[in-house]
Each structure stands twice: as C-alpha cells, then as structure tokens.
Amino acid sequence: MTSTISRLYDNYSDAQAAVTKLEAAGVPHSDISIVANNSDGWFDDKKDRDGDGVDDRAEAAGTGAGVGAGIGGAAGLLAGLGLLAIPGLGPVVAAGWLAATAVGAAAGAATGGLVGALTEAGVSKDEAPLYAEGVRRGGSLVTAKVADGDKSRLEAVLDTSSVNLRDRSAAWQKNGWTGYDPGSQPYDAEEVRKERTLYR
Predict the structure, then answer these.
(1) Are 98 and 121 in contact (CB under 8 A)?
(2) How far is CA 14 from CA 10, 64, 86, 116, 175, in A?
(3) Which of 26, 66, 69, 132 lies 20 to 30 A from 124 at CA?
(4) How far is CA 84 from CA 35, 87, 92, 104, in A?
C-alpha cells in the first residue's frame, strides 16, 4: 500500500532540497511532484540560453556541486520542470505526476486544479485547500507517493524547513482569509514578495 505525503515550503530552494533528499532516500522521481509559484518570474523555461545545445539549468546545477549531485539533479525530477497555468494559482513551475493530474482535474472536476488533484491522490479535504493557498501565496509544494512502511521516515525528510501548515493557515485567517477560492485572482509579484517577507 502507498500513501501520499505533502509539504509546503516558503521558497523554491527549500522545496528543491526536499526533492533531492527524497530522491537520495530512494523515492523514484516518478513518484515525486513539485509545484512552485512563479508569479515573480524566477523560472525561465528557456533551457539553452546560450545556444550551445546544453541545458543551462543542468549545467548551473552542477556548478559548485559534487559530480554526483550535479548528475543526479539533472537526471531526476527537477530536470523536467516546466511552466503551467493552474486555475486559482496563476503561473507555476511544476514537474511530476501531480502537475499532470492538476491540469486534468482543472479541465473536468468541480473542485478542479490543485485541490482536486491532491484530494484525488489521497490528501485530506481539509489540507488540500491549504496547500493550494500556500502555492497561490508564493510557496512551493512537494508531494510524493511512498510505501506505507516508509511514510514516517520520509515525512521526517520533508519536515526539514517545511511550513507548519496549521500555524500558517491560522495566520492567514487572522488577517481575514476565509478559505481557498479557485476563482480568486492569483497573487502578483509584489503580493508574493510581501507574503514571503512576512514569514522570513
């Protein structure tokens, strides 16, 4: 049996580190997904900016990293990042099974988008909207399908530098948030910047 585990991160670099740790812990990249807010345009999906036929993102990943880390990063999940637009979230950078499910859910499900994809994958109906709101506000979500016997160990891997979802949603509610609305406007770059500043 398998379970789905998810964690929210305030920035892409923390989520990227979590993905790398999951892969190092033996989780196949086909069982991991990442969805990161791109309202501020930090990700450029043009892979070969200098025209030399080499993916510059993979080349940069190897700079200053061990050979194994550079190759692992280039060959794993993070090498497949691409830009998407998900209803209610706006522009996101995503890779993995959840991204494909979210796009499909947006097309056909009443709950749609990321919330529909998360609940379909087994994330609780209470937590799925919180994860979606976290991404809308500038966060990055890492989700993995793991064997039940490995769940606790791998949740501990993801817990490093992740957001406490209950505390964060309580802070949003204190500031007037009443719940995730897929019809709401995505955050723009300035709103994302302010949100990230709040939780540094």
Answers:
(1) yes
(2) 7, 18, 22, 25, 25
(3) 26
(4) 9, 10, 5, 12
Burial of 108 from C-beta contacts in 10 A (0-12 / 13-18 / 19+): exposed
Q: Which amino acid is at 95?
A: A
The verdict on pTM exceeding 0.70 is yes
CB 115 within 8 A of CB 72: no
In angstroms, the first-to-last Cα distance of the chain is 37
- What element of type H or E holds 61? helix 56-62
| 83 CB-side CA count, 13 A | 12
Residue 125's Cβ-side half-sphere holds a number of Cα atoms within 13 Å equal to 2
